[in-house]
Description:
alpha/beta, 46% helix, globular, binds magnesium ion
Amino acid sequence: WIKNEGRNNFAAYDPTMEREYQDRRKLEHDLRLALQRSEFSLVYQPMLCARLDQFMGFEALLRWTSPVHGSVPPDIFIGIAESIGIMGPLGAWVLRTACTEAARWQNPLKIAVNVSPIQVQQGNLAETVAEILAATGLAPERLEIEVTESLLIRHPERALATLRAIKALGVRIAMDDFGTGYSSLATLRAFPFDKLKVDRSFVRDLCEGSESMAIINAILGLGRGLRLPVVVEGVETELQAAILRRCGADEMQGYLLGRPLPIDQFKTITVGRGATRGAAASRHHHA
Ligand code: C2E
Ligand code: MG
Ligand code: MG
Ligand code: MG
């Protein structure tokens, strides 16, 4: 069997691998305790109506600040949370916290919450959403659930039933990261989404005559044909914003318009008047 192995990597003693394994174990262990230790928080990123130049709402984004591991990016810890079986309770915490916060705002802005495929497949997500809406008093029309198409791959029937039940509550469903999966168009036909969010990879190199430009235009055309508002994520420059406005993007989101921040950084938007871009932008400068 030594011959077959060839590269000697069967050796039990690889200190690097051993270390990585221990690190991962420690991360899993601490993540499992993070909810009860109140180490999670939400930041909020504004979504701007391109035509009115006004904020329509916020997307809630989860943050984990660990005393041991520091600030761990969601792209890393969410996958781990899913694999160790805590995404259900964690996702419910996100929904409850975001809805509680939004219910306090004087402006009836929208609140968008990302939901993991695991939450959708667990089957009781619609009940959880209904219970949280009732408990917080948030109007269902103000809540937007963001899902990625990956959720429709494993158990499409169950996922569709759950999404329909959530829609029946009056909550909107947005398809996140549109364009990055391998079956976006089929998914689009399989489920009546209320909104498309174009992945920011298409915005990065956006300029006249670029391939990204052609793709964005095609998605905007698709949105018009299907009567679905299209949000473009990852807008970082005035040039990108100008191009997107001219092409007819409905909503924009990105560092140019506002970084994800703790909600108290957006007081002017959430407690009345001043829901304009200028008001928020001026706050960012001393944030
Ligand atoms: P997403 O839902 O597509 O969120 C957009 C991501 O792009 C966020 O990263 C946001 O901070 C980042 N972003 C926004 N504007 C810009 C920009 O102009 N430039 C660049 N370079 N980035 C921008 P974040 O917060 O690190 O989240 C990453 C992903 O983690 C999210 O992608 C989402 O899939 C997931 N996630 C975050 N919070 C939650 C949550 O509460 N539940 C679940 N299930 N997933 C979450
Ligand atoms: Mg999202
Ligand atoms: Mg996205
Ligand atoms: Mg994403």
